[in-house]
Amino acid sequence: MNAPNTSPRPNTLRNGPDEHGQFGQFGGRYVSETLMPLILDLEREYRAAQADPAFKAELDDLMRHYVGRPSPLYFAERLTEHLGGAKIYLKREELNHTGAHKINNCIGQILLARRMGKTRIIAETGAGQHGVATATVAARFGLPCTIFMGAVDVARQQPNVFRMKLLGAEVNAVTSGAQTLKDAMNEALRDWVANVHDTFYIIGTAAGPHPYPELVRDFQSVIGHEARAQILEAEGRLPDMLIAAVGGGSNAIGLFHPFLDDAGVRMIGVEAAGEGLDTDKHAASLAGGSPGVLHGNRTYLLQDDDGQITEAHSISAGLDYPGIGPEHSWLHEIGRAEYHPVTDAEALASFQRLARLEGIIPALESAHALAAVEKLAPTMGKDQLIVLNLSGRGDKDIFTVAAALGVEI
Amino acid sequence: MSRLSDAFARARAEGRAALVTFVTGGDPTPADMGPILDALVAGGADVIELGMPFTDPMADGPAIQRANLRALGAGTTTADLLAIAAAFRERHPSVPLVLMGYANPMVRRGPEWFAAEAARAGVDGVICVDIPPEQDGALGPALRSAGVAPIRLATPTTDAARLPVVLEGASGFLYYVSVAGITGMQQAGQASIEAAVARFKAATDLPVAVGFGVRGPEQAEAIGRVADGVVVGSAIVDLIGEHGAAAAGPVREFTATLSAALRRAAQEKAA
Q1: Where would you find the membrane-spanning parts of this chain (chain A) (predicted)?
Q2: Which CATH superfamily is domain B2-262 in?
Q3: Is there a contact between B65 and A186 (Cβ–Cβ < 8 Å)?
């Protein structure tokens, strides 16, 4: 459960982070001295970009014509009927170019890279969605790109590896540690520290050292801004509840942030509970972790008593990370957002249900959020409204799901 | 005077740079650490850096990554690290000992706990790779009030504007990471090292030790002509990786060649 909140709330919850890059005790800039000047440069350049109408104009133009925004807000009539409670709207981020919300952030960051005169792009990826989105924008702007991906993930996500290569990226299979997302991020940081002069690191989620959590959130907030206008148009009022899956948490913070000051809007982030919170095979950093420092920020982590990071597990590679973005840790501590666990098995059932009821195959990440909707919607009145962030499409997951269901493709 | 400043002063009195050696604590096992640390001292090391193993050593190259995995694989805990330090302090009352590692294992039980335990174990200084000056509050105040020196890192990207930020609150010595990169990979050009050391020495009275990419006696000798200290890590860690529990002998011999190189540099300087 959330820690009790004894300190008074600020007037707005949307001003974070503070001048130290912190959300309460979370966030900050825990990086090596070599990277520190670059991180400070990035912050300066981001402030300049925010004040530059030409930056916003170029971003908006690419979002519209290249990404395909705005994404629809779709009333899921049959899912609503099936659950028999609140009206459910799906924010269709899976319809974006490359099939997920990840591209929103990549477009923003590559424009920053160009402003900073950087000529080489690197990124980490787990399932490969952020890697594909990064390789896509690197191709669009003609910049060489190296994607770091754990060797285990390379083996189980071959279609995305091939996609990245088609887009012209070099895929570097990381063989250190557990050879998954966390290790890919370590290796990307090692590359960055050795190539600070010409390289821009496009971090894929709202985590890492300040200003990344802030700028990733801002680029993803297009989701919440659109959803707010769309639900007002459709229903004439704000929703009662927002639901989104949380790995690092970029799609969730993108949906939540524009609503943070709307006290009547309940927010649910959904963590991957893997094989269950009572096992050691889950990825629920808030429900099963504690605050610590990793990958540049202070946040909730899966760790042992000595501060060694423990392995995360989720059927969804995109949620398979032992940490969470610092703003979520803060929203959890002050009680503004709630975080619910959903297991692999629950997500698998919801994955199939949405396909049958709405003709939409969701990403396994988004299927976790759906499973939470299935629990919550029936407890709510028919006049109440839920907006679910359908953050990605499930084509990439069909092999994983088939294997879990014992089907040979 | 502290053990750290004494060690640098002693080397300076001999006209040479201090030899700073790094090994990962618990590599290959906690039980092997006593003989390995003793071998460093016997070989002529002036300052010992004891690495705290971490699952995610993101500033380290392959050699020290593997050492971290060996140490953790052998079950090394923070309590083991502190016990290794305390036992070293008993055997070597005057040799300075520095813990080096990443923030999370250091702050896990709270910075005050860590600082107090380090002080109790006879640790003289702490180098934390991922706590830059901007995050000093996460560990620095606790170390200072426990009498343990927070040792700061400077890098090729630490420009003139930033150097005062790094030096504010620094103590023990200034550790110059001579390459923008990870441990044990490339080596910096001698000219760039000389320019950087001169820049730092104009800005601080702290001894300046140079590390990252110093693989053998020749480089140590060259750097020893300009710096107050020379740090060697990955090359020693590789020997431990190769020889395992039998590493003490080879480590002592190799350390002795480094120590001899620094004394040679001193003679050349004097001549």
Answers
A1: none
A2: Aldolase class I (3.20.20.70)
A3: no
**pLDDT tens digit string along A363-408?**
999 999 999 999 999 999 999 999 999 999 999 899 999 999 999 9
- Show the CA angle centred on residue B16, arms to residues B14 and B17, nearest 5°: 135
Q: What does CATH list as the number for A30-64+102-209?
A: 3.40.50.1100
Tokens matching residue B5: 């400043």
Q: How far apart are CA B170 and CA B152, in angstroms?
A: 6
Q: Is B12 helix (H, G, I), strand (E, B) or coil?
A: helix
The reply to whether A70-99+212-405 shares the fold of A30-64+102-209 is yes
Q: Give the tens place of pLDDT for each residue, B163-195.
A: 999 999 999 999 999 998 888 777 888 999 999
Containing A150, the helix (H) or strand (E) segment is strand A145-150
**How distant is the alpha carbon of residue B207 from its chain centre?**
13
User: Which of A43, A93, A94, A124 does the annotation list as catalytic?
Assistant: A124
Residue A294, min C-alpha distance to chain B (Å): 7
> In A, which residues are within 8 Å of B132 by CB distance?
29-33, 36
> Is B157 close to A36, i.e. CB distance below 8 A?
yes
The position carrying tokens 């001899």 is B260
Q: Contacts of residue A306 in chain B, CB cutoff 8 Å? A: 77-78, 105, 108
Q: Any idea where the domains of chain B sit in the sequence?
A: 2-262
At B231, phi and psi to the nearest 5? -105, 125
Mean pLDDT of A133-158: 94
Q: What is d(CA B154, CA B161) in angstroms, rounded to the nearest whole number?
A: 12
Report CB contact under 8 Å: B108, A303: yes
Closest residue of chain A to B186, computed from CA coordinates: A194
Mean pLDDT of chain B: 95
- What does the domain layout of chain A look like in residue ranges? 30-64+102-209, 70-99+212-405
Range A70-99+212-405: architecture per CATH: 3-Layer(aba) Sandwich (3.40)
Q: Are strands A296-301 and A26-30 parallel, antiparallel or unpaired?
A: antiparallel
* Yes or no, beta carbons of A190 and B61 under 8 Å apart: yes
